[in-house]
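ok new one. same drill as before - structure tokens go in, u give me an amino acid for every spot. 98 of them this time. try not to just spam alanines like last time pls lmao
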């Protein structure tokens, strides 16, 4: 009965560097939507971007690779990754900054 659909990964990312005011959140939403992932993205007051991403492991890995590059104009210096619980809502959206 298992067709690999239970191969899901959920990660919380903390993206550091020059990642605010460069379209990073829009970039993350576009990538997550393209990969049919669930989760959210928001700016944090310390200058980082926080992301919760959930979906098939291969798609999450591809998203993380994109997150490490970021959009043109950004400069990602570090991405911390931690396992997380999947989001309660389907889809990928922008959350208010904290």
């Amino acid at each position: 009965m298992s067709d690999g659909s239970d191969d899901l990964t959920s990660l919380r990312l903390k993206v550091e560097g020059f990642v605010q005011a460069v379209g990073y959140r829009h970039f993350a939403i576009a990538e997550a939507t393209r990969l049919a992932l669930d989760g959210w993205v928001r700016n944090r007051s310390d200058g980082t971007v926080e992301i919760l991403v959930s979906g098939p492991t291969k798609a999450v890995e591809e998203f993380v690779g994109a997150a490490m590059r970021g959009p043109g104009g950004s400069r990602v210096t570090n991405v911390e990754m931690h396992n997380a619980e999947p989001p309660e809502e389907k889809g990928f959206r922008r959350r208010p900054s904290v």
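Strands lie at 8-18, 38-43, 49-56, 75-83, 92-94. and btw The chain has one domain: 20-88.
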